[in-house]
Amino acid sequence: MAAKYGDVMAFRVLGQTLIVLNSSTAVVDLLEKRSSIYSDRAESVMMKLTHWDRGLVSMHYGEQWREHRRLMWQYLHPKAVQQYHVAQTRGARRLLRGLHVHKHDLEFQIKMAMCTMIVNILYGIPAKDVKPHFLDMLLGLEDGFFEVLKPGNFLVEYLPWLQYVPGWFPGTGWQAKASRWRDQAYLFMDGPWKEAQDAIARGIVEPSLSSELLEKASQLDQSKAKEQVDLIHEMTSNLFGGSIHTSSATLYSFFCGMVMHPEVQKRAQAELDAVVGPDRLPEYTDRDSLPYISAIVKETLRWHNITPLGSPHRCMEEDEYRGWRIPKGALVLQNVWAILHDAEVYPEPEIFRPERFLHDGQLRSDIPDPTKVAFGFGRRICPGRHFADDLLFINIASVLHTFDILPALDSSGKPIPVTAQSSPAMLS
């Protein structure tokens, strides 16, 4: 569709204007160069009813959002994320152990390893005490969150007055869903936080992001300390919720790519054997000597990006672009999939080919870096992108140095074909 209709498309759906940007040029022109008016989020009745509008992804652009971003950036800028390398490396080793014991339970092992690492970093709860119920809280919330994100799922989004109709009225089953999801949201926000506070009180917690922030907050006067503690509570919940699914889904894409392209595995393993050797596992200090592994990270983000249409940006005031009027309130979608599958930039884009990012054994600087697209644009760019990039490297390098990734076998012992498919949701 992008090739047929150009790099800017407009639709009108139930009174809502949708703008789809299909090129990096158009995305940069609007979402970055004009970010002051393209950084809001969509109005959503269901988000308000479930209280999910408190999440950073769906939070409206304003002072509260800026406070969250400022606090996050202190701990997520490129130098700051180096302090998490030890925890990320432990998490990668934990994934290896899980896969060794439960090799047929890939999805759960990835998610549980990511959950354990994130809970430890955020709340200081020791890895041995991170149980599956932490992950269950998140997964229960995700099901509802993605249902709300699907366009057309809830009539109340288009007829807001329906939110005031009594719950006993026919056709208002969505109210029960909103109530249940709101309860899950509070459980998700408060569960890990309360367990961390209990662990702190019992003296069994490890140093963490929340304990460091709470120590700083304790030095403020009472009213400011209360505000800061509430901010820390919400921020850590946002980081917990925003990191596990995205990192797990990206790693799952990596495994699919390796099964479908075994020649990539072999070249990566040859590089690891030459640089790391047989007597240890990869470390972050090896990264500069592992350009092919770094290329695999980039290709994983490009090949099957988990946010094919990104998160909609809301235009905050009327604008004009290339002679077209963009009304206030229009939702602007970034066609990340089209940008990262542009055959003129990435020839044969459907093929997992890390070599496209290399020349003479070194990473190329003349080809657009998928990390500049995969994590969003403008002021809404993912605050955890540097953390995520490091996380992908250490897990991908560790897995490839330890295992051969092969397709599952059917009852007759033949490999089951693997295909990579996208979903129409925000996350594929």
From TrEMBL:
SUPFAM superfamilies: Cytochrome P450. Its main location: membrane. Pathway: Secondary metabolite biosynthesis. InterPro entries: Cyt_P450 (IPR001128), Cyt_P450_CS (IPR017972), Cyt_P450_E_grp-I (IPR002401), Cyt_P450_sf (IPR036396), Cytochrome_P450_fung (IPR050364). Heme binds at residue 382. It is found in: Membrane. Coiled coil: none annotated. One of its GO terms (molecular function) is iron ion binding. GO terms for cellular component: membrane. It is a single-pass membrane protein. Its cofactor is heme. Keywords: Heme, Iron, Membrane, Metal-binding, Monooxygenase, Oxidoreductase, Transmembrane, Transmembrane helix. Belongs to the cytochrome P450 family. This is CyP450 monooxygenase.
